[in-house]
Specification:
Blueprint lengths: L2 E3 L2 E4 L3 H20 L5 E10 L5 E12 L3 E3 L1 H11 L2 H21 L8 E5 L2 H4 L4 H12 L6 E6 H6 L1 H13 L3 E7 L16 E4 L1 H6 L10 H10 L3 E4 L5 H9 L4 E2 L8 E2 H11 L1
Helix pairs in contact: 1-2, 3-5
This protein binds ligand C2E and magnesium ion (MG) (3 copies).
The site of one magnesium ion (MG) has 4 residues, from strand 8.
């Protein structure tokens, strides 16, 4: 990419940009191999009901154990997967893996009340014409009751192609699959459009949760978001709960559910199994 600098109108070769491009390309090459070399794993983060502190479900979060670089964050590789289209395969695998896992925990009677599994869907996955078929197939293969599956999508993913999305969401709804809006507040932040989409749950982005101050007049937009979402019949999950103070505020605001390091970090399946065993 040409960059204007000093007297020369164009600088044709920027060594820093060049380095970045090469690293990015290398990561893309490695990511293509990651799936069949079994370098991807899914971690699970508990989601709790705030009034009872009871576990209600998990969010599935993909992890990449790169052979040289170690753990690569999904914040880094999901955007690459999106751009290259690799997200369709990765997303399919994550969905299948996490449905299998929940079904296994249910079968082992690891918990009395049924728990949900929330899985992130990217914008690009949403534009696949056979997305609903893929989900049907995964549910059939894993024997998971669709009621326990919850799909998380962002506002921008919905708005990118609102019409196509609406029909997909309606198909999912027919199957009793639940839907969450992820990272609410970081995108269009328009509660009015939510009326036209069949959404069960709104997840308040962690930036809002973490900005809540020590006293009641510094709660920012959190009270408003909770109030309107609940009036529209949605339940609310607060993301990124890290402190007792944040938890206290959220409880006082009647927020339904919470997720965050204060309760539990995302953990590999075995650790969750152990946790479930110790509590039953
Ligand atoms: P997200 O869906 O909003 O997931 C929540 C993120 O917040 C996770 O980051 C989680 O580890 C982190 N988190 C949870 N509790 C706390 C807390 O108390 N404090 C802080 N600071 N962070 C907390 P993670 O796992 O790094 O994932 C980042 C993003 O990558 C996700 O954000 C999601 O957008 C995307 N992602 C992760 N797995 C998948 C996947 O399987 N498919 C797709 N399409 N995207 C994924
Ligand atoms: Mg999410
Ligand atoms: Mg989120
Ligand atoms: Mg987020």
């Amino acid at each position: 990419r040409a960059k204007a600098s000093g007297s020369a109108p164009f600088q044709v070769f920027d060594p820093t940009l060049h380095q970045t491009a090469i690293q990015r390309l290398q990561l893309e090459i490695d990511l293509r191999k990651a799936l069949y070399q079994q370098e991807l794993v899914v971690h699970y983060q508990p989601i709790l009901a705030l009034t009872t502190s009871k576990l209600v479900g998990f969010e599935a979060l993909v992890r990449w154990h790169h052979p040289q670089k170690g753990l690569v964050s999904p914040a880094v590789f999901i955007p690459i997967a999106e751009e290259t289209g690799l997200i369709t395969q990765i997303g399919h695998w994550v969905l299948k893996r996490s449905c299998q896992q929940l079904q296994q925990w249910q079968a082992e009677k690891r918990f009395s009340a049924p728990l949900t599994m929330s899985v992130n869907l990217s914008a690009r996955q949403f534009t696949q014409p056979d997305l609903v078929e893929q989900i049907d197939q995964i549910l059939a293969e894993t024997q998971l009751n669709p009621r326990y599956l919850k799909l998380e999508i962002t506002e921008s993913a919905i708005m990118r192609n609102a019409e196509a999305t609406t029909s997909v969401l309606q198909e999912l709804r027919k199957r009793h699959i639940q839907l969450s809006i992820d990272d609410f507040g970081t995108g269009y932040s328009s509660l009015s459009y939510l009326h036209s989409f069949p959404v069960d749950t709104l997840k308040i982005d962690q930036s809002f949760v973490q900005q809540m101050g020590e006293n009641a007049d510094s709660l920012g937009l959190v009270p408003l978001i909770i109030n309107i979402a609940q009036k529209m019949g949605m339940t609310v999950v607060a993301e990124g709960v890290e402190t007792q103070t944040q938890l206290d505020h959220l409880k006082a605001l009647n927020c339904d559910f919470g997720q965050g390091f204060f309760f539990c970090k995302p953990l590999e399946a075995d650790k969750i199994s152990a946790l479930l065993a110790s509590k039953s």
